[in-house]
From TrEMBL:
Keyword Protein biosynthesis: yes
Subunit structure of this chain's protein: EF-1 is composed of four subunits: alpha, beta, delta, and gamma.
Designated name of the protein: Elongation factor 1-gamma
Entries under Pfam families matching the protein: EF1G, GST_C, GST_N
């Protein structure tokens, strides 16, 4: 009789595995109440954190419904939603016992609602290992994928050193996962557990959006594991047909949160006299607003106020672009004929963190992003960026021609990449420095004894 009255306290709505005596009548009433009301998941249809719960529900035989007409950025800001999660994060599970937020907690709850599944293993040690891999998936896989992917999509500031660190940490985590999966089909035991569901949903973000084949091929057991899981019927029912991305997304500009428009309540039943009085003020008010909103003249760039230079930057850029043969005799000679040391200055730059350049395509993307953000200086600058080396770590070095005798302050202020480089002004009276300028302009190889991985031009 005592054993019949001892149940996991999750029957009473807790996530703990501690044992607690509960009366049979309470168990019966609780079960009927839960079965009478479906669980409502507040999340978008493509939310990978929501997928965790939906897939777990398929394995556990629990009914979970998506909230109808959910709109991210709108629904989760309503007073009703904020009562369930005060900070407005998604997903949230609405249950008879109250709301639950945080995706892993929601998936845990759903997995425990019925005791006739193996999502939490069959022993205490398996339970511990499942929790171990859930934590590993969140802190080592999902966190580093997010630091790589979301800044590229413009949701967070894009910082190359941060991206490099995230990729390095992700590579280390996938290496550890790959070693474990070399002798295991699943993370724990011999069937799908909640750890596999959460791990696969986190890997899904990467495979679908940023982990290209050349990257994942370094981890063949992780690849086998991922494709095995996403093609299981319960996974496929929720995820559909999964395809691996064939390109790393380019860096996008930061997205600014939209500001809701304020609507002023209209006064009702105003006296006609007041209405006429307000109407008479409208033309005067409109005139005042127009004067306030009139665009102020844009201040001139300080570089436009410099004395005229004999060097016409566009002419040099055309010469550089149109010279296909005899580059040294035509383009390089033409550059020095045009160069005005009083109106322009030359600068070498060296990346400060070359030891972090361990992935070739990431290093190339880093340079491309820098050139993209330098677009604000296109009218006043010309640049060459070299990625050097046949093996990692790769070196990034550059040559820049700027209008004026110093690096423009507005470039230093608005392009954060500038702080990632050491800048040295070129002394053109030094023959060795002048020859280095020549070699960088013409993509001379080997450059300083090493092969060129790539050379990019800003013009």
């Amino acid at each position: 009789m005592l054993l019949r009255c001892v149940v996991l306290c999750c029957v009473a709505g807790s996530d703990s595995l501690a044992l607690r005596p509960v009366s049979p009548d309470l168990i019966k009433r609780g079960r009927v109440f839960r079965e009478a009301m479906a669980l409502i998941l507040h999340a978008g249809k493509s939310n990978k954190n929501g997928y965790k719960t939906l897939i777990a529900a398929e394995y556990a035989g629990v009914q979970v419904q998506l909230a109808p007409n959910f709109e991210m950025g709108v629904t989760n800001k309503t007073p009703e939603f904020l009562k369930m999660n005060p900070i407005g994060k998604v997903p949230v599970l609405e249950t008879p016992d109250g709301p639950i937020f945080e995706s892993n907690a929601i998936a845990r709850h759903v997995s425990r609602l019925k005791g006739d599944n193996t999502l939490y293993g069959s022993s205490l040690i398996e339970y511990a290992h499942i929790e171990q891999w859930i934590d590993f998936s969140s802190t080592e896989i999902d966190a580093n994928l997010s630091k790589w992917y979301y800044p590229r999509m413009g949701y967070f500031p894009y910082l190359p050193p941060v991206e490099e660190t995230a990729i390095s940490s992700l590579r280390r985590a996938l290496g550890a996962l790959n070693t474990h999966l070399a002798t295991n089909t699943y993370l724990v035991g011999h069937s799908v557990t909640l750890a596999d569901i959460i791990m696969t949903c986190n890997l899904y973000l990467g495979f679908a959006n940023i982990l290209i084949k050349s990257f994942t091929s370094e981890f063949p057991h992780v690849e086998r594991y991922f494709w095995t899981l996403v093609n299981q019927p319960n996974f496929r029912k929720i995820l559909g047909q999964v395809k691996q991305t064939d390109a790393i997304p380019p860096v996008q500009s930061a997205k600014k949160p939209s500001q809701p428009k304020e609507s002023k309540p209209k006064a009702k039943d105003e006296p006609k006299k007041e209405a006429k009085k307000e109407a008479s003020k409208e033309p005067e008010k409109a005139k005042e607003e127009a004067e306030e909103e009139a665009p102020k003249p844009k201040p001139k760039n300080p570089l436009d106020l410099l004395p005229p230079s004999k060097m016409i930057l566009d002419e040099w850029k055309r010469l550089y672009s149109n010279t296909k043969t005899n580059f040294r005799e035509v383009a390089i000679k033409g550059f020095w004929d045009m160069y005005d040391p009083e109106g322009y200055s030359l600068w070498f730059c060296d990346y400060k963190y070359n030891d972090e350049n361990t992935v070739s395509f990431v290093t190339l993307n880093k340079v491309s992003g820098f050139l993209q953000r330098m677009d604000l200086a296109r009218k006043y600058a010309f640049g060459k960026m070299l990625v050097i080396g046949s093996q990692p770590p790769f070196k990034v070095k550059g040559l820049w021609l700027f209008r004026g005798q110093e690096i423009p302050q507005f470039v230093m202020d608005e392009c954060y990449d500038m702080e990632l480089y050491e800048w040295t002004k070129v002394d053109i009276s030094d023959g060795a420095q002048k020859e280095r300028v020549n070699q960088m302009i013409e993509d001379f190889e080997p450059f300083e004894g090493e092969a060129l991985l790539d050379a990019k031009c800003f013009k």
